[in-house]
Amino acid sequence: MASVSLQHIYKIYTGGVTAVSDFTLSIEDKEFIVLVGPSGCGKSTTLRMVAGLEEISEGELFIGDKLVNDVAPKDRDIAMVFQNYALYPHMTVYDNMAFGLKLRKTPKAEIDRRVKEAAKILDIEHLLNRKPKALSGGQRQRVALGRAIVREPKVFLMDEPLSNLDAKLRVQMRTEITKLHQRLQTTFIYVTHDQTEAMTMGSRIVVMKDGFIQQVDTPQNLYDYPTNLFVAGFIGSPQMNFFTVKLEKRANGVYAVFGDNAIRVPEGKLQKFSSDSYIGKEVYMGIRPENIHDEELFLKNSPESIVKVNVEVVELMGSETYLYLKTSGKDTNIIARVDPRSTSRTGDTINVAFDANRLHFFDKDTEDTILER
Amino acid sequence: MYLDHRLVAKISRILSRLNMNIMLLDTSGQVILPEGDDRELTLPEALRNNPTQPLVYGGFTLIGTDGLQPLFLCLPGDSPDVCNCAILASELVNSIMRIELPNADREQTFRSILRDEIEGAEMETMALEHDIALNDERCVVMLHLQNVDAATAVSILSNVIDTEKSDALVEMDRHTLILVKKLDEPGDYDEIDQLGQAIENTLLSETNHQVYIGIGEPKSGLNLLSESMREARRAIDVGRVYRKEEFVFVYRKMLIERFLADVPREMSMRYNSLLFNRKTTRLFNDEMIHTIEKFFENSLNLSETARQLYIHRNTLIYRLDKVQRIVGLDLRAFDDAVTFKMMMLLGKTGGEKNRRGN
User: Is the N-terminal amide bond of A238 cis, ω within 30° of 0?
Assistant: First the structure.
């Protein structure tokens, strides 16, 4: 077990392409950290630098107290689980899990102990004598995990390990990996482009874009206090609704105005503005789908945050309903996540109320949040 | 007698434990160890007549190993201790040779077959001598090792490949290693790219260096192995041009790329420039190319591509519409997508900087 510290790490390829810029992060011992971001944001490159599979152009990488920039991957005491979980087809599950230890000349009895222990953790004891072709996708992925576990590394590195699995299995393996982390009590660094995976698994999440860290925080904080427009949109599904609004000071308070709509910004929210200079200016406003309500009671209690909308599509999901809404001042649909008992139907013109206490505001130029925590 | 790099390294390692400057010579007197010493020494006739008996000669102690083609050891000094050390060293080398030589000879036979150096009756005789079945179905897996030497790769892979009976690992040169893989069952070849992936994973994580792997067609008959090797090499050559993100290339699965590689360069350029020219430079910027590549990677699935690129589906549609408007190809339609892909791949053939796909 070990902490991992990345200090001002850069990855610059020949030709000057910068894949990762000034990446600074301290990962605590036993932490489950997830690197998430869209394709090409530098998350896999960062993981590969930790693994030693990519050279670090600048900066320092510590595993525990040891500077490991120039340490070969096999000597870093890490284990990596790749996306394609390639197993040797001619070898049994047992041998596939054991060969890494054989390479390191580990005594046979010790290999046997570790393989059986890992198999027990992963619930694949009964598969040890099978060959990979007799395994399902999920079982193969477990074997790949087992191969990493037997090495008893200080740090587990996982590069989109679930992306080759179908949706159902992915959900199942997500839970398995979380349980595994709890059981092994080791540092996990996990890369994914799937924000749901990140939110459900990580104890902390690093959101990346274009090689830069956008925000590092717990899943809940990322969701509640996104630091910029990108994080706000990236985290959460369906994603946050954004509006270009003008903050207008009126007699009874400050209003966010877009099209024919005006929503009163609560006093408590205004106090969190980092500067008064935003009043009178255009900013981006964001609201999550679950904070848009069509219930009578909410509408009655929120007269100053009502928006008139046309219902374009109603998606019944069973436990909830998504309404795709159109209103003035916004070209694209607003998505609202409402109660499945909602009576709104396609073609209706209805009123919805925004939960003004849950509004987010972002600077129009920098796209950074203008709210302080 | 042929001693491969790995065997020499092993002998060198063990002799170094004796803390003496021991010189190893082959049967003809050519220096094998220390490496880099290329002298050929004249050995005393008395030693040739009775190699296993230590001989003191000119302040050195000389001794040979067992066998018809002995190796010779030369130790500085002529004391009884040096003599004992010489005996011990020769016994150590004998032990190594007893274990390694049958494999080395088998490996050498495969090497000669792959290089087309032996054929017909000679090949059959050598195959029989080393217990190599003549008509088994096998294929060649070629490992192109850029920054790893073959000996290191062999030492790693000998833990996962059964080189004693069915398969063979053959060092062709310092950076090329061949796995001759026996295919026991009909479905074995279907799993061959998985084996390639597993080998690539292992070598990458153990050595920190990328390895390129090419896999030739299965062949029944030893005399066809060299053809499988040529296919494996071709797969690597073509794969490195057209599939830059991949490292394992199966010859059979690269039909289009092989075809495109055979198109004359001039013709490739001519067709590529129909799409990628000065007028479309702005359209096909890095972002657009990345978008299109992702779209193809996701089998023309709009939603999944938009999700992975984290752009709105409408943004993706807008970009594809823009391509359609300017070059007339609707990439959402299979035929147009194939045309675009082919034209883009053609750009990789020549490698010109001003063309797309490099």
Answer: yes
Give me the helices (H) in chain B, please.
5-16, 45-49, 80-114, 120-129, 150-157, 192-207, 225-242, 255-262, 265-275, 286-297, 302-309, 313-327, 334-350
pLDDT score of A40: 85
pLDDT interval class at B101 (50, 70, 90): low
Task: Name the CATH architecture for the domain at B5-103.
Answer: 2-Layer Sandwich (3.30)
Q: Do B60 and B54 meet the contact criterion of CB atoms below 8 Å apart?
A: no
| b/e B294-311 (16+ beta carbons within 10 angstroms → b) | bbbebeeeeeebbbbbbb
Domain chopping of chain B, boundaries: 5-103, 133-258, 263-356
The alpha carbon of residue B206 is apart from the nearest alpha carbon of chain A, in Å, by 5
| Chosen from A41, A87, A90, A330 to mutate, greatest number of chain B CBs within 10 A | A90
Residues A203/A31, Cβ–Cβ less than 8 Å? yes
**Residue B104: per-residue pLDDT:** 64
Output the pLDDT for position B353: 40
State the DSSP code for A271: H
CA distance B51 to B233: 44
CATH 3.50.50.60, domain B263-356, yes or no: no
Please state the φ and ψ torsions of residue B84, each to the nearest 5 degrees: -65, -40
pTM of the entire predicted model: 0.78
Question: Is A193 an interface residue toward B (CB < 8 Å)?
Answer: yes
CA atoms within 13 A of residue A207's CA, in its CB half-sphere:
24
Per the CB < 8 Å rule, is B191 touching A89? yes
Number of Cβ atoms within 10 Å of the Cβ of B80: 10
Q: How far is CA A199 from the centre of its chain?
A: 5
CB B338 within 8 A of CB B256: no
CA–chain centroid gap for B48, Å, is 39
> What value does the mean pLDDT of chain B take?
87
With an 8 Å Cβ cutoff, are A39 and B159 in contact? Answer: no
Interface test with B, best of A17, A36, A39, A55 (most B CBs within 10 A): A39
Digit-coded pLDDT (tens) for A157-171: 999 988 877 888 888
Asked whether the beta carbons of B146 and B209 are under 8 A apart, the reply is: yes
Q: What is the pLDDT of residue B180?
A: 94
What is the phi-psi region of residue A323: left when phi exceeds 0, alpha when psi lies from -120 to 50, beta otherwise?
A: beta
Nearest to B191 among A73, A84, A133 (CB): A133
Yes or no, beta carbons of A53 and B208 under 8 Å apart: yes
H or E element, residue A310: strand A306-316
- Counting residues of chain B whose pLDDT is more than 70, the rounded percentage is 95
Q: What is the dihedral of CA A37, A40, A45, A46, to 10 degrees?
A: -30
Coil, helix or strand at residue B256: helix
Residue B226 banded pLDDT, cuts 50, 70, 90: very high
Tell me the ipTM for this assembly: 0.75
Q: Which CATH architecture has domain B133-258?
A: 2-Layer Sandwich (3.30)
pLDDT band at A105 (very low <50, low <70, confident <90, very high): confident
Contact B29, B43 (CB under 8 A): yes
Give the pLDDT score at B358.
Answer: 41
Amino acid at A339: D
At residue A87 the predicted structure's pLDDT band, cuts being 50, 70 and 90, is: very high
pLDDT of residue B350: 62
Average pLDDT over residues B279-286: 90
